[in-house]
């Protein structure tokens, strides 16, 4: 019978990875302490080290996303306003016979 696969939350993974990055304990000791396979500890450590640069760039990415969303919202409102004006002018030009 196959064992049910365990899922760990990101906070747990980060705690294990930080413990591995500190280097105070071996990967085997960390794996035994947290009841996970040592290979998993190494993978989480590698993932955290690779993604560390993204932590410091996240604020800039969020600001760019906010700017993009604000600009998109403004453009959508402008498009709506122009569509209403075009419809109004079409209607008035038909009424005037132009």
Question: How does this model look, in words?
Answer:
- By secondary structure, the protein is mostly helical.
- It has one domain.
- It is built from 3 helices and no strands.
- Helix 1 crosses helix 3 and helix 2 packs across helix 3 (38-96).
- The longest helix has 59 residues, at 38-96.
Taken from the alpha-carbon principal axes, the silhouette is elongated
Name the poorly predicted regions. Answer: none
Helix and strand run:
HHH
Rg measurement, Å: 28 Å
- Most strands sheet: none
Q: What structural class should be given to the helix and strand makeup?
A: mainly alpha
Distance between the termini: 81 Å
Count of strand segments: 0
Mean pLDDT: 90
The percentage of residues in β strands lies in: under 5%
Number of domains: 1
Q: Portion of residues in helices?
A: over 70%
Total helical segments = 3
Give the helices and strands, then pairings:
Layout: H1 10-22, H2 27-34, H3 38-96
Helix pairs in contact: 1-3, 2-3
């Amino acid at each position: 019978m196959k064992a049910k696969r365990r899922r760990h939350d990101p906070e747990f993974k980060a705690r294990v990875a930080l413990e591995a990055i500190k280097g105070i304990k071996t990967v085997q000791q960390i794996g035994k302490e947290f009841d996970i396979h040592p290979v998993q500890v190494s993978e989480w450590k590698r993932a955290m080290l690779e993604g560390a640069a993204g932590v410091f760039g996240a604020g800039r990415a969020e600001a760019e996303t906010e700017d993009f969303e604000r600009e998109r919202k403004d453009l959508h409102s402008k498009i709506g306003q122009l569509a209403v004006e075009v419809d109004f002018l079409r209607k008035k030009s038909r009424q005037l016979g132009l």
